[in-house]
UniProtKB/TrEMBL annotation:
GO BP field: Gram-negative-bacterium-type cell wall biogenesis; peptidoglycan metabolic process
PANTHER family linked to this entry: ENVELOPE BIOGENESIS FACTOR ELYC (PTHR30336:SF4), INNER MEMBRANE PROTEIN, PROBABLE PERMEASE (PTHR30336)
Alphabetical keyword list: Membrane, Transmembrane, Transmembrane helix
Presence of the UniProt keyword Ligase in the record: no
InterPro entries xrefs: Cell_Envelope_Assoc, DUF218, Rossmann-like_a/b/a_fold
Membrane-traversing stretches: 7-30, 36-60
CC annotations in GO: plasma membrane
Domain named DUF218: residues: 76-242
Name by which UniProt lists this protein: YdcF family protein
Pfam families tied to this protein: DUF218
Species for this entry: Cohnella xylanilytica
Length: 249
């Protein structure tokens, strides 16, 4: 019963509420203007599907599966890509925090550092005027997690993945590293590997921050529209477009 309630409840709040309203508009148009009603129905179904876990996880899962997590790390430095940060938000030892994706990547990097002793290079700048500088925040948090300062490198100028690759490549060359272990979100790894390759750097991919489960299971809740699935669909489409742009530009 609780799952049925959850399914029905998903149509009470956005985006499910918008699906219901659009369907009501389709019904109203159907007897008046059939062609616009059919077009609106197609758009509504597309929007509904993009808001379901079934579709969003299929889209992002195909990206996450391209690079399996290696059982053994082979490299001389751990490179972590930023993924957003807030400024002027309270933290234990200062202000500013990494966003969820960036924090997950940082956590994996710290665990790799403790198991391998490799230094950590964090790449990411201040993308918008009201966001935090990712690399600077990451350095403070790494120090707070017990990583020694001599094992931390920062590249704090990059505003996108292409700049991450180019600016990190310069810093790696300057510091004498040539076998980086790349840590970023699993869905972001295919584009990141391509950008680093085009920047002349071969990396060992070490994906983190997964959205999908390793084993698929179908249940009615996967067909319930929700805001998180809209976000995941958007992330996946952004990566596909980014991969296309990286290949043709």
């Amino acid at each position: 019963m609780i799952y049925l309630i959850k399914f029905i409840y998903s149509f009470v709040l956005p985006p499910g509420l918008f699906v219901v309203l659009l369907l009501l508009l389709v019904l109203w148009l159907w007897k008046r203007q059939r062609k616009p009603a059919v077009a609106l129905l197609a758009i509504t179904l597309l929007f509904y599907l993009s808001a379901t876990q079934l579709v969003s996880h299929a889209l992002i899962g195909s990206l996450e599966k391209r690079y399996p997590q290696p059982s053994e790390v082979q490299g001389d430095v751990i490179v972590v890509l930023g993924g957003g940060a807030t400024s002027s938000t309270p933290d234990i030892d200062g202000e500013g925090n990494l966003s969820g994706a960036a924090a997950n990547r940082l956590l994996v990097a710290v665990r790799l550092h403790r198991s391998t002793g490799l230094p950590i290079l964090f790449s990411g700048g201040q993308v918008f005027s009201d966001t935090g500088n990712e690399a600077n925040i990451a350095k403070r948090q790494l120090l707070g997690l017990g990583v020694p300062e001599e094992a931390i490198l920062v590249e704090n100028r990059s505003l996108n993945t292409e700049q991450n690759a180019v600016n990190t490549a310069e810093l790696l060359k300057e510091k004498g590293y040539d076998s980086p272990v790349l840590v970023t979100s699993a869905f972001h790894m295919p584009r990141s590997v391509l950008e680093f390759k085009q920047a002349g750097v071969k990396v060992q991919p070490y994906p983190a921050d997964y959205w999908t489960n390793g084993r698929f299971a179908f249940y009615p809740g996967r067909l319930a529209p929700n805001a998180e699935s809209v976000q995941i669909t958007g992330l996946a489409l952004k990566e596909y477009l980014g991969l296309l742009a990286a290949r043709i530009l």
